[in-house]
Design brief:
F-box-like_dom_sf, FBL15-like, 12 helices, 22 strands, 17-stranded mixed sheet, alpha/beta, single chain, 3-stranded parallel sheet, FBD, Leucine-rich repeat, LRR (right-handed beta-alpha superhelix), 476 residues
Amino acid sequence: LRRRMACGGDSLPRRLRQRADGMDLISALPDDLIFEFLIRLRCARAATRTSLLSRRWRRLCNRLPELCFRDIAPNHLDAALAGVATAGRVLSLLEIHVSDRHPLQSHRISSLLHAAARFAPAVLNVCILGLKGKWSGAMADAVQLPCFRRATSLKLEVTGVRFTLPPAGDFPALESISLVLCCHIDLANLVPRCPRLRKLRISSLMLFSVIVHSPSLEDLDVVAHGPVRRIHISAPSLKKLQLKALGCLDNEFSLSFSAPLLEKLQWMWCSSSSPSVGFGQIWRLTVLNLNIPKMANGSESGSTDLQPPRHLWLCIEPSVILTDAVQSIDGQLSRFLVTRFSFLDLMIGKASHVYGPLVLRLLAANTSIQRLRVKLCEVREEACSVNCPCDHTNWRSQRISLSNLKNVEIEGFAGESHEVDLLKVILRSATMLQTVSLHLSRKVSSNTNGCMEEVSQLSKVYPSVILNIYHHSGDR
């Protein structure tokens, strides 16, 4: 039907439009049914062309509560918005999409947003993929956001624009904000002007500071493409936080955080040119996930055995740049909001490094760990250097308190001597250990048979521990 209307012809034969007595069946449809049909077209242009079916539909098109304009040239878009504008008309949804085939200057984007504000939409989605003019850093042309006083949801995907706020005025109804691919937005000024904000998503090319103070915010998702200098978050209702630093953390990076109801946390550092967040001299943290489950009655989980355990997942890789200062693991974890956890999952890109000291320092930082899972990944083939700082401690003779550790699983175990030494320290320290499962690497060969025999003998030294050894085919 939509395809035939787009061709400009009458899309239904007369015999289908009229009964034998001459009554126009399409014109006789109730308004609610026609509205439902027009809305489902998801295109204002297609809805207007339905007037070919009936003159009455043309009048109903001007009363649609939802308007979607897609792939329309900017000049035609201005005319279309002016054509449907009537005094006092408000919309439940206004959606505008301008492709990169029609790049707009900042003043045209500003004019378009103010035209959209006149419809007072409850939900406004604007996607403009092409920008004419400067768009890097502070030199980007500014676009002032109107105060969408009725909007509950605002989604702007506008490439390279630096958004500014009006000198006065709030966004009293906004519950959800999504700003994607913008150049900059002042969160410290925006968030306090949204008293009902519950969900905030920002993807910014030049977001140096993440300053969010909100009593209502529950979900925060931030993607920063440049170096981040400050993260200051105070959100007593926040339950989910995701932060991706695609550049790196500034050398003078500062962090303050308060979110007592937090349930899910993800930090991601994607820069390979600097340590960003270092563990010692060679290791850098790239991803941190923390799940904090709730009790059935809704109260926050704590440290007692009756409450569900917290689950910490870390991805750690060797850094390209070696740092001089050795930073404590426990200090780093507390800095990034992690205090107590029961399940620890590690993904380590070992690159032939000795990873035993790293794992033991993580275990020593939280002795309440009940389950340890380690996945070892080779990130490059070159051998560890003779003077590499990865093995400059007497960690092999350590004994740490692991009275809660019950299960250990290592995937990618190659049977090297330092891996066996780590296993010995864990067995010696974990008095309540029940099972150890080793999934052997495909690189296990005859050169490591001696070490594997030593591993097998450990089951005799610690008979209370069930030792499972799996070959890469999955056989035990």
